[in-house]
Amino acid sequence: MKKLVFLTGAGMSAESGISTFRNSDGLWEKYPVEQVASIQGYMADPELVINFYNRLRRQLLQASPCLAHRLVASLETDYAVTVVTQNVDDLHERAGSSHIIHLHGELLKATSTLHPNDPSQVVTLREPHLDIHMGQQAKDGSQLRPAIVWFGEPVPMIEPAIHEVSQADILVVIGTSLVVYPAAGLLHYAPPACKIYLIDPADVSYDPSLGITHLQTGASEGMKKLVEMLRKGS
Length: 234
Ligand code: APR
Prior knowledge:
With 234 residues, this protein is an alpha/beta fold. The protein has 2 domains: 1-18 and 65-104 and 155-234, Rossmann fold; 21-62 and 110-148, 2-Layer Sandwich (SIR2/SIRT2 'Small Domain'), CATH 3.30.1600.10. The protein is built from 8 helices and 9 strands. It has helices at residues 27-30, 33-36, 39-44, 46-62, 67-74, 91-95, 158-165, 219-232, and strands spanning 3-8, 80-85, 100-102, 105-112, 123-124, 144-148, 170-174, 195-199, 213-215. The protein is globular. The mean pLDDT is 96. Bound molecules: adenosine-5-diphosphoribose. Residues 9-11, 14-15, 20-23, 26, 37, 86, 104, 175-177, 180, 200-202, 204, 218-219 line the site of adenosine-5-diphosphoribose.
């Protein structure tokens, strides 16, 4: 089976009703990124940040996977598929993808403030205990925090992601502005023979030497085209 790796960003979930970050009505227009998505912001006002992610988590429960998520999952019948996502939602999981690497953490998980990357500290948040509260302790006794990788923090899942991309026969990048590193640098680990597709309605800027085929359209429309192209072997 050929190895097919997806690298997805916020545009992947836009059609599910989840805001992107850098579009004109994106999340970072409404909330200063330094305040709600950096370790410094969390340390300065943990309650504000915890409540911000509590709200996002509740919004996520109202959303459903879109056609693009389902088409990504459907390709598992013909390809060895890995999804590397920058998204913190669980829409790839709910659409049925089975091998998912979350580079920037997961909204439905919580961890310790002291040792956020220690897997034994991570817990899954479920109704009726979906929210994190101030004073709620992780297993090590520190404040429980969202299991999100914030700016200023290491990205431990980048190593397994590099490993996957470096073995890809086909790499498909969907809905990411490719401005946040190290995720954006993953494209450079694709082997020379790897075919790279980009699905995004915007003029995303990328290294032209990568020989990318840009399907300049939304995620679901683009995935329909891609499935067709893969079927024809193009
Ligand atoms: N289908 C596909 N792509 C879309 C759609 C759509 N329907 N709508 C918008 N897009 C594209 C935009 O054109 C843009 O290129 O999705 C991209 C979203 O870019 P960003 O908002 O910058 O999101 P992303 O690249 O995922 O951000 C990376 O930055 O803020 C941090 O940690 C956060 O994981 C996030 C990271």
